User: Which sequence fits this backbone?
């Protein structure tokens, strides 16, 4: 019912827009002949997210005010004292260029309500802080010089404005009596108009939309207003409560959707995963000790791009405006990788393979197929299953002068690789084809010996916000590691051509024999087990989980962890179904 109303409102919104001749806030594939507003964004693939504000002075992430339940008067002192002497927008732009990002999004106003621009509609901004100057203006100028589109994050939720409702349940110093949410929305609309007029942003990136319905927070009116002001402006889905089909792109937060995102029409939808480099928070966290490695981030970029998305990678600059070494070092390393391999990222489209039979991912640009090899194969070759298009030449992007040996083996293409990877994290093989790649789908199923092998690199890794698990290559084995969040799980779909009974085996490495536990779920039936100890965390062993009787047809198998010890359950290599006597 609510959904119908939302859709009806959207349709009305679209009609109003087309009447006004402006671009629509939500759209399917671009119409023939119409300029594609999304093209630059679709091709950019990699952006830099900057969470910065008064909270950086506290050093406890951007939710500091809520975490510490800081009264307004006390938070005001931070707002007054905000004076980032080390803020150098040219330096940020240079870092962004070095990192190889193609656009930048910065918080213009986060949930705390403090504006990083000198707003005419509030005193709660940088202009009234000790700093006393605008931040977004100089930043916009520096980014423009560097050729990087700049967009603004804007929080609808506001913990400071007297008219914003509802209140946090711990707030005592902002009485709700007399507050008028409509007046708050007027304020927000004024600020948004101000942002577009003064700084001409490429993107408005909304957030903090979850406390109200689309209608309550005037999502359609605001979207329309913005697009009338600037038809080429891109708006994320969080102005419209993240429903599929709303906004120009979806915004999965700190997880990679296993098979990309689709719109309500079932067609692939543009999306951008926003991701932190550290485990805890988006704003500066002075106590942070856990950071993803640069290699992990490079693989995540590839993973996202191979599924048709963009990566928006976050930094939280410190109170003085400097970006900490942990962030800059990682950005520089990603940039270094992109200088060699960027051709396989920028302007590419999603993989044409449903999965590859090794730890790697694919991207495509026209008649070139890029294979991103993440775990160097032990036998020196990679097999591209069902690739029907002819291969004219193959080489590593790291060494284009040397052609790699390619042979056809039935419906597969086999590429011989050098003995060693050119890059410790991802080595890219470029294959020039006779035409755009055509691949015959290969469902997972039994091998010649009847065994069904389900390695983690061929799984869809399901997760929600807060993904922790990722794939890594240890010595000669690819495993799912850092597996501590029960919402992260690998899932395989496979087919059997005849009914059969199978022994279910799991290969994993664990030091927590008898302590952590997991379940193998086949078509909804669960086999529960406790983890057993393997020789080490890097070397897996194979353990029997149970037995399964399967009819012929399509099956879904998941492995879920059910109890974790010391933030660890196991490093999973694969599940194997071995035919056995009934
Ligand atoms: C969340 C958080 C916020 C962060 C944002 C980034 O919704 O509330 O702090 O800015 O996500 O995606």
Assistant:
């Amino acid at each position: 019912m609510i959904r119908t109303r939302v859709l009806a409102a959207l349709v009305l919104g679209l009609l109003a827009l087309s009447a006004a001749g402006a671009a629509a806030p939500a759209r399917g594939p671009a119409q023939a002949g119409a300029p594609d507003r999304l093209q630059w964004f679709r091709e950019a693939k990699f952006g830099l997210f900057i969470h910065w504000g008064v909270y950086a002075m506290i050093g406890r992430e951007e939710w500091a005010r809520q975490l510490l339940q800081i009264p307004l008067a006390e938070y005001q002192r931070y707002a007054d004292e905000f004076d980032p002497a080390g803020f150098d927008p040219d330096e940020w732009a240079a870092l962004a260029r070095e990192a190889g990002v193609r656009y930048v999004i910065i918080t213009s106003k986060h949930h705390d309500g403090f504006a990083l621009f000198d707003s005419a509609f509030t005193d709660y901004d940088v202009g009234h802080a000790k700093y006393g100057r605008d931040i977004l203006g100089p930043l916009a100028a520096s980014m423009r010089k560097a050729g990087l589109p700049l967009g603004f994050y804007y929080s609808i939720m506001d913990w400071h404005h007297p008219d914003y409702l509802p209140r946090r349940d711990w707030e005592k110093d902002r009485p709700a009596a007399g507050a008028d949410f409509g007046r708050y929305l007027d304020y927000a609309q004024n600020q948004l108009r101000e942002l577009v007029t003064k700084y001409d942003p490429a993107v408005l990136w909304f957030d903090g939309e979850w406390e109200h319905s689309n209608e309550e927070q005037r999502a359609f009116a605001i979207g329309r207003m913005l697009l009338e002001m600037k038809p080429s402006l891109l708006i994320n889905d969080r102005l419209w409560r993240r429903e599929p089909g709303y906004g120009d792109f979806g915004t999965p937060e700190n997880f990679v959707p296993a098979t990309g995102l689709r719109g309500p029409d079932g067609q692939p939808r543009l999306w951008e995963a926003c991701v932190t480099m550290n485990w805890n928070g988006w704003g500066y966290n002075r106590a942070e000790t856990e950071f993803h490695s640069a290699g992990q981030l490079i693989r995540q970029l590839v993973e996202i791009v191979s599924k048709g998305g963009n990566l928006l990678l976050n930094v939280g600059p410190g109170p003085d405006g400097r970006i900490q070494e942990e962030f800059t070092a990682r950005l520089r390393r990603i940039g270094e990788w992109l200088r060699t391999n960027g051709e396989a990222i920028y302007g590419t489209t999603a993989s044409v393979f449903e999965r590859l039979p090794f730890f790697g991912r694919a991207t495509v640009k026209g008649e070139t197929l890029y294979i991103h090899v993440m775990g160097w194969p032990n036998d020196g070759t990679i097999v591209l299953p069902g690739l029907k298009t002819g291969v004219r030449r193959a080489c590593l992007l790291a060494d284009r002068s040397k052609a790699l040996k390619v042979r056809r083996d039935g419906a597969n293409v086999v590429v011989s690789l050098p003995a060693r990877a050119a890059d410790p994290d991802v080595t890219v093989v470029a294959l020039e084809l006779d035409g755009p790649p055509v691949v015959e789908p290969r469902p997972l199923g039994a091998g010649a010996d009847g065994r069904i092998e389900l390695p983690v690199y061929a799984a869809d890794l399901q997760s929600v916000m807060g993904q922790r698990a990722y794939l890594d290559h240890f010595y000669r084995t690819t495993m799912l590691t850092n597996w501590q969040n029960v919402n992260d799980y690998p899932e395989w779909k496979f087919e059997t051509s005849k009914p059969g009974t199978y022994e279910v085996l799991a290969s994993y490495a664990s030091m927590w024999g008898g302590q952590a536990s997991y379940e193998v779920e086949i078509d909804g039936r669960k086999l529960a087990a406790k983890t057993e100890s393997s020789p080490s965390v890097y070397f897996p062993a194979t353990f029997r989980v149970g037995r399964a009787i399967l009819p012929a047809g399509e099956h879904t198998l998941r492995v879920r962890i059910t109890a974790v010890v010391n933030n660890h359950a196991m490093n999973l290599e694969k599940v194997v179904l071995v035919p056995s006597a009934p």
